[in-house]
Amino acid sequence: MEENNLIKDIQPKSETFKLIQKYVLNKYTITICLFLVWMVFFDKTSFLVINELNGEIHKYEDQLDYYKKEYEKNDAFYKKLMNNKSEKEKYARENYFMKKPNEEIFILVVDSTKVAKK
């Protein structure tokens, strides 16, 4: 008599368990869930890898924009420098310490330790 009661207790009684068995434990549902887990985590073209690669693409696009702006700025400076003789002379004097004949150049060096103490 007790054995029959135990068997009845083990057998599913509720409707929710029947619904779970019907829909969740269905072979198609399990297959779809396994496929989604595979695509998200394990595949070489998984969503995580694609998201990481998109982040790198945006980083490189930002770098490209930066270098385009720098190129335009340097190109404008180069054109200004090549078209104007006084600008060319000024640039050579300031950056390369060039001088005219019969002219002296004084280079002043500031001691950084004394400046930092003030």
Please tell me the overall pLDDT. 82
Q: Structural class given helices, strands, pairing?
A: mainly alpha
H/E element sequence: HHHHHH
DSSP strand tally:
0
Shape: rod-shaped
Radius of gyration: 38 Å
Binned, the helix content reads over 70%
For the sheet with most strands, the description reads: none
Poorly predicted residue ranges: none
Into which percentage range does the β-strand content fall? under 5%
Multimeric state: single chain
Please report the number of helical segments.
6
Q: Measure the end-to-end span.
A: 99 Å
Describe the structure.
The protein is built from six helices and no strands. Helices cover 76% and strands 0% of the residues. 0% of the residues are buried.
Question: What would you say about this model in short?
Answer:
The protein has 118 residues and is mainly alpha-helical. It is built from 6 helices and no strands.
Protein topology:
Blueprint: H1 2-10, H2 15-24, H3 27-42, H4 47-83, H5 85-96, H6 112-117
Helix pairs in contact: 4-5
Key descriptive features of the protein:
rod-shaped; mainly alpha; 118 residues
